[in-house]
């Protein structure tokens, strides 16, 4: 299984954003908590301190982690500086060996008892093995030297002491993230702790929506988040994300990390364990909530909005089932109609990201079995329009690729281009470590038939892991970034500098 997930914000119940509780790539092997080895459990996100996710009887479960600075590792416990290591325990300086216990320096041997090593002799009292000399006192094995005090192995040195994030300097909006040339930080707003993925209407008044979930068994509901920048969680849910047949407390749902809206409808999704990873998307009707509906959508992972339709990157839609690909739910007619509009490249091992620019270019993503990374290609507006009209899918492999240069775990439209969150999963726990948010500009020519992808342009750069980007979504021509650190979760609007618009 090659599922790639990233927890955003503060967990399933309080995840601060659209990456939040779900996978970065729903593969044909599937999603959820099923696994074949520990590597598959990366999708569970950040584990509590002192624990990690491990694959136990084909399920990802929390297990204890051996901490490098204590226990059996090199600086404590049974190793060199304590426990059974050379400075304590059963080895040279303590225990049963030369310096203590039954060894030559103590106990019944030559260094203690009635022999010449006890009393006033060389190994006791003021002699070489006690007092101020090498094996005790202020000598090499105790006191303020290498093995104790403030030096490397204790005190405020390398292996213990202060948390660097506690001493870091935090910008009120961006924390320790570094804004790059060509961009400015606009309004910021605190994000309610219960909020999940966030979607924003096209504007000019930007209404925000989110999903709130109480664990995998639910309930899972769509809520209003107000209008930007007055962000607050609505008093009551608008819509149950789970279809009626999936509302049993015994049914575990894996929420898809998207909330997409065209202003008239709001799209959410989820999957379940099982063959093909069955799931549904819910379509909430803003003006007529009673007309809201659910559509079968196995392995749905990401979505985007184009004129008259939602694009869904997944394994099928409604009665259309043709394996992993790009499907469209056409909302410009009643009832809605579903069709496959895009085929993914042959090296595809799983679903990927979908993001649409303001001029209609769709970045279609997939997880590559060749590179073991998320990849993205820029599909021209004319190709999308023709596929929606004719029902003949476009080939994603024919579109130009984004030269991301690393893995990425989120994507969003950003004006006439898209932005992605770059980074990778880091062993041994495979928690995601971000490096930057970068933008790729798209130039459209030939009446929408040709797209040129620009060079990568950094927007935000990680100085450390003290502040995290927890999600990306478009707000008009700008980018709304989810940010989380010791000062709480918040949304920050990133705009291009006026001279670059």
Brief summary:
By secondary structure, this protein is an all-beta fold. 3% of the residues lie in helices and 37% in strands.
Oligomer classification: single chain
Number of continuous helical runs: 2
Strand content: 35-45%
Spatial shape: globular
Per CATH, the class of the domain at 167-500 reads Mainly Beta
Sheet with most strands: 6 strands, antiparallel
- State the helical fraction: under 10%
Rg from Cα: 29 Å
Nearest-integer average pLDDT: 79
Q: What is the CA-CA span between the terminal residues?
A: 42 Å
Number of strands: 32
Unreliable stretches (pLDDT < 50, length at least 5) are 1-33, 66-160
Helix-strand category = mainly beta
Indicate the CATH architecture of the domain at 167-500.
6 Propeller
Write the CATH fold name of the domain at 167-500: Neuraminidase
Describe this structure in words.
With 501 residues, this protein is mostly beta strands. The protein has a domain at 167-500: Neuraminidase. Helices cover 3% and strands 37% of the residues. It is built from two helices and 32 strands. It has helices spanning 164-167, 381-390, and strands spanning 4-5, 23-25, 51-56, 59-64, 178-179, 183-190, 198-200, 207-213, 220-227, 230-231, 239-240, 254-255, 260-261, 265-271, 279-285, 293-296, 302-306, 309-314, 325-330, 337-343, 348-356, 362-368, 374-379, 394-395, 407-413, 417-426, 431-445, 450-453, 457-461, 468-475, 478-485, 488-496. Strands 5, 25, 26, 27, 28 and 29 form a six-stranded antiparallel sheet that branches. Strands 7, 8, 9, 10 and 11 form a five-stranded antiparallel sheet that branches. The longest helix is centred in the last third of the chain and has 10 residues, at 381-390. The protein is globular and about 65 Å long. The model is unreliable at 1-33 and 66-160 (pLDDT under 50).
